[in-house]
Amino acid sequence: MKEGYYLIGVVSKITGISKDTLHFYNKIGLLVPDYIDEKNQYRYYSRWNLWQLDIITTCRKLSVPLDKVKQILDFHDNGRITQLLLDYRNEALRLSRYYQQVAEDILWYDEENKRVSAAIHSDKVQKKWLKGETVIAGIMTRDGTSYHANLQAAARDELRYADTIQRKYGYILDIDEMRAGNIYKCSEYLKIADSSYSHVSPENLHVMPSGEYAVCIVRIIRESADFGPLFSWMKENGYTTDAVYADELGLQLFDYIDDYYCEIKAHLKKI
Question: Which of 167, 192, 149 is nearest to 253 (CA)?
Answer without folding.
Answer: 167
